């Protein structure tokens, strides 16, 4: 009989338990993100929380095995780089003993959580629940996805807390990173190298593009900005709002304006159904060109091809 697992993880929400104290100590490294076992190979910066994981990494990445030392399956002769992969293969493909079976419909499952999720069909009871908010779930995967909502990221520099890792990283980059790139001419500071490279072009007369229109003193460092200026200010080409007649310089700004100012007035898109019928073709009544005619380069004419007429007559007679 195995020893009882009396060494439990002290972290809230973690139900891991072990029968040896050193295994609990090793498990706590995962919570603290401590990877004490680093790879000693040259130009390799990988590190792991357990020695076995490090050995597996070295065996797979840094060691070359001869044909006679590769781990092979005794049943199907498949070969693997390490013992762990061979054990996993045998357990999945050749260990046909299925320990979990439904008493109601005799369906077998390989894992206990699969049987628990299946029992919802018979009992209507959701087997998985959140330890924080008591919300219930049918499958273990649904619970794991839900648990991400309760994971917070506290800023180490200020008291702000974020629910998403990406927003936390964006906050660190925008609020706490020092301004590294400073312009030597005007003293303006930038956080990214690409921004200061774009800014320096303003101080170089050879890289500044002047508006070609008469009596216009505007200049730009990017050709796209100059083109947008010319379309809106001189050629009067704008993107007009159909609700309030506001004039925007780009299509993107029009979309942002519509969402911000007229969100409640937007037209609801009706989904298409078979009862609505097919949409009327835009080229109805016009001459349709075949792909062969377009590739040949021959001029298009509205006269009928006499060869096609002959073929049609033969078909009708038959």
Keywords, please?
two-stranded antiparallel sheet, 11% strand, 36% helix, alpha+beta, 18 strands, Double Stranded RNA Binding Domain, extended, single chain, disordered C terminus, two-stranded antiparallel ribbon, 318 residues
Structure description:
It is found in: Nucleus. Keywords: DNA-binding, Metal-binding, Nucleus, Repeat, Zinc, Zinc-finger. One of its GO terms (cellular component) is nucleus. Among the domains are: 7-93, 2-Layer Sandwich (Double Stranded RNA Binding Domain), CATH 3.30.160.60; 100-150, 2-Layer Sandwich (Double Stranded RNA Binding Domain), CATH 3.30.160; 208-261, Classic Zinc Finger (Double Stranded RNA Binding Domain), CATH 3.30.160. The protein is 36% helix and 11% strand. It contains twelve helices and 18 strands. A two-stranded antiparallel ribbon has the order 1-2. The chain has a two-stranded antiparallel ribbon with strand order 3-4. A two-stranded antiparallel ribbon has the order 5-6. Strand 17 (239-240) and strand 18 form a beta hairpin. The longest helix is centred in the first third of the chain and has 12 residues, at 51-62. The N and C termini lie far apart (89 Å).
SSE blueprint:
Elements: E1 7-8, E2 17-18, H1 21-31, E3 37-38, E4 47-48, H2 51-62, E5 71-72, E6 79-80, H3 83-93, E7 100-101, E8 108-109, H4 112-118, H5 120-123, E9 128-129, E10 136-137, H6 140-147, E11 153-154, E12 161-162, H7 165-176, E13 181-182, E14 189-190, H8 193-200, E15 209-210, E16 219-220, H9 223-234, E17 239-240, E18 247-248, H10 251-261, H11 291-296, H12 306-317
Antiparallel strand pairs: 1-2, 3-4, 5-6, 7-8, 9-10, 11-12, 13-14, 15-16, 17-18
């Amino acid at each position: 009989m195995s020893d009882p697992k009396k060494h439990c993880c002290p972290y809230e929400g973690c139900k891991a338990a072990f029968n040896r104290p050193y295994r609990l100590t090793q498990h706590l490294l995962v919570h603290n993100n401590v990877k004490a076992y680093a790879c000693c190979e040259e130009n390799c910066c990988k590190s792991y929380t357990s020695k076995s994981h490090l050995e597996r990494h070295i065996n797979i990445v840094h060691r070359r095995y001869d044909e006679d030392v590769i781990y092979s399956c005794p049943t199907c002769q498949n070969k693997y780089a390490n013992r762990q992969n061979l054990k996993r293969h045998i357990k999945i493909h050749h260990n046909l003993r299925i320990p979990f079976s439904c008493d109601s419909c005799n369906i077998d499952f390989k894992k206990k959580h699969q049987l628990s999720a299946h029992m919802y069909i018979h009992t209507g009871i959701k087997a998985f629940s959140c330890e924080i908010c008591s919300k219930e779930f049918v499958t273990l995967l649904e619970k794991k996805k839900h648990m991400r909502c309760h994971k917070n990221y506290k800023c180490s520099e200020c008291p702000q807390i974020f629910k998403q890792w990406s927003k936390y990283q964006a906050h660190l980059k925008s609020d706490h990173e020092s301004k590294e790139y400073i312009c030597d001419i005007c003293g303006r500071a930038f956080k990214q190298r690409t921004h200061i490279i774009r800014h320096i072009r303003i101080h170089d007369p050879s890289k500044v593009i002047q508006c070609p229109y008469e009596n216009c003193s505007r200049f730009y460092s990017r050709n796209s900005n100059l083109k947008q200026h010319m379309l809106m200010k001189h050629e009067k080409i704008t993107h007009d709002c159909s609700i309030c007649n506001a004039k925007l310089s780009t299509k993107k700004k029009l979309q942002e304006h519509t969402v911000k100012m007229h969100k409640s007035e937007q037209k609801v898109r009706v989904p298409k159904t078979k009862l609505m019928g097919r949409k009327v073709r835009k080229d109805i009544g016009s001459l349709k060109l075949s792909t062969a005619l377009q590739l040949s380069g021959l001029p298009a004419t509205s006269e009928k091809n006499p060869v096609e007429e002959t073929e049609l007559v033969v078909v009708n007679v038959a």
